[in-house]
Structures are given as structure tokens and as C-alpha cells.
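HUMAN: You are asked to prepare a plain-text protein record giving the amino acid sequence and the C-alpha cells, both parts labelled.

ASSISTANT:
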Amino acid sequence: MTGRRRRRGAGRAVLTFLTAFGALAGAALAGAAPAGAVQKGVRVAPGVTYEEFDIKAAKGVTHAHVLKVDLGHPRVRVDLLYPGAVAWRAQVSRMADAQGAVAGVNGDFFNITEAQHPGVEATGASVGPAIAAGRTLKAAVPNGQRFGPALPPGTTTEDVFGVGTDGVARLDRLTLDGSVRTAEAQVPLGGLNQYALPVGSVGAFTSDWGSVSRVRATCGTDTDRTAPCSTDTYEVTIRDGKVVSAADTPGSGPIAAGTTVLVGREAGARQLRKLATGEAVEVEHRLVAATDGAAYRLALGGYPVLTGGRPLPGLDNTASAVRTAVGIADSGRRMLLLALDGAAAYRSGLTIAEVAGTMRKLGSDDAFSLDGGGSSTLVARRAGAGTVSVRNHPSGGAERAVPNGIGVFSGRDVRAADR
């Protein structure tokens, strides 16, 4: 791994660059950084700065790495980092370099293990909706099928952080609207490129899914991720608007462009069994934003922790961990990306309530929690470098492969390029 800073132990110089402002939810930015650490914002690219500092939290001192991004800058653009398929993972640094990003962080929680379903392949797919370069990649799994800490009251797997085609960041909710239509019937679509389908539903898989087995989509229930896999399943392949094949068990392998694989479980499987080879089938799907008129260039899942400058009620203030979060300031014109350090000296981390308080103290009006623990990674280019460096210490000792992230890009004038 490149670009790591060695932290000094006892007797390290303590330098203050922020005024201590008191604890909120048990956390305060202490400004105590190791010798040689960044004391103030250092420019990564026009409109993008990086800084790091200590945070005094309830369970000890942790170390924060922050990117501040001016979304109104004509040379700044943000987009989804992902490895080219929904059901695939890669390190944040590799995705950033492959896509030409100057900085970024890891993103959504994901299907990391299938220990409860022996023989079933973990897909690596993310929990929530995902949009990249304005194109819908996937929808959200049921709440009970998610990985990660418990959702705050009133939130769902459909909650997203997004940056619109207008360049404004916001928190929103994206709901799948889709159908499978034949000459005889119309069936609502329950999923799009997601590792878990609602019980009794039909889900669509496209070339964006990748080649990983689709069996996991029929395991668990809407309320219990560990429940057994369904024994009542059916899969139909649609090509050029017609049924070309069917199978009793979901398959694997790449899906060609222009082809849709429909997977049904229980009632959904029974609906698919009615389709005959050669029958015309129309599959439609889109993500509908709760915010009227919102069109997104980038969107990914997680969960909100701060809205309108106030922490959500019911945030956990007990479990501390290494965290990643994204904040929104200046009416959506500024974005803050936070990743905590996973080095042993700082691994106590923050609670979710402390994350909300920290993001507010950094100037965020809204904030959104992303995957943490061994996934927490922040990367940024150093002066004169053509590739990114990992700025924090991932708690697992090395970068974890993840399904997506938030990438920050710099160009001559990205607004002109988008027109």
C-alpha cells in the first residue's frame, strides 16, 4: 500500500490546528495530530483539499482524514467508483486510478459473507441503490437483508447520498419502479441487480450484474437475512424481447448486453413458469427519487445520520468503530468525505452519534454514514503524482476490496465536458 504515514507513539509532538469546541455526543475535534501530519487543508486539485486531525471521543482518541470538495468549482466532478460490475469488488485505490479520480472514499455496505448459507456464493454486491454516470446500476435489497449496523429509526435501504446532474449534493430515497409485461399479464418488478429479492417477487438481472451466481437472490427473507434459501425458484432469460430459455434454479455467468434474466421466488416463480419459449415479454425498470425532479449523476446507499443540522433521533451512542461518512454543506455545493484511521492507536473509533456530531462540527448540514471497519479507506493524490495514495490506515492492515465508492475528479472544465 502506498502513501501511508508512520504514526509516532508516546512522546509524539502534539500540534493544534483546530480550537477545541467541546464534545457533542461524546466527541470533539482535538486538533492533536502526529508530527508531520497535515495541519491545515492541502490542495489535492482545484477545489479539493485534504486534512487530518485527532478527535477526542468517548472511548479514546481517534484520527480523522477529511476531503473537502467544492462541488461548484468548474473543474470538479464526482461520480461512483465501481469495478465495472455490481457483483464485484476492488480496492478503492485501484478503482480511483482506473477511472482517473484524484481522490475518493469507500461506499456502501455489501454482501460480504454467506456463512449462514453453505455452498452459496457471496456476491460482493452493495446493499442500496447505485447510479454511476447518470445510469442506474441497481436497486435496494429489503431492509432485513442488509449488512451493517442497525438502521436508525425511520431510515431504509432505499436511502441514498447523491449528486445530481445539476452538481448539487443531497440526501434522498430511490425506489424501484418496474414491471414484467406480457400480452396476458403484468407483474411488478421486485428487484434490479440485487443480491436479495423480496419474498414472492421477480427480479431482473442485466449485464451490469456481472457473472456471479444469482442463487443468493433467493435466500433469506424480508426480515431475516440468515433464513434458508427458497426451494421454489425459477429463472427465465429474455433476449430481444422474447423468452429464449428457462431453468428451475438461478444460474451464473455473464449476461449479454440486451439480455435480461428474470429470477422469481415463491409467487414470483409461479408467475414466471407461465411464460413460454418465444413469448414476447417487456421488462421496464427505473429508480424514482423522493425529491421531485431530482436526476442523479451519482447515487449510492448507506444511511442518514444528520439532516438539517440535527442528528437523527435514536442514533447509537454505544458501539464505537472505524467509520466512513459523507457530509453536505452550503446548500449542497460542498461535500465533505470523512474516513477514520484504523491504526491500532486510533481503532476505538466513533459511535454513529459521534459521527453525526463530528460532521456537524465540520460544517455539514446533512451527513450520511457509509461502510466502516476494515472497509474505511480514503485516497488522494499527492502533489505531482498521477495516482492516488491511501491516506488512512485500513484497520485490517491492507485495503479491503469493496463494491463501490465516491470518486472525486478534476478536469479542465467538467461542466463543459458534460454538456
Notes: The two ends are 37 Å apart (CA to CA).
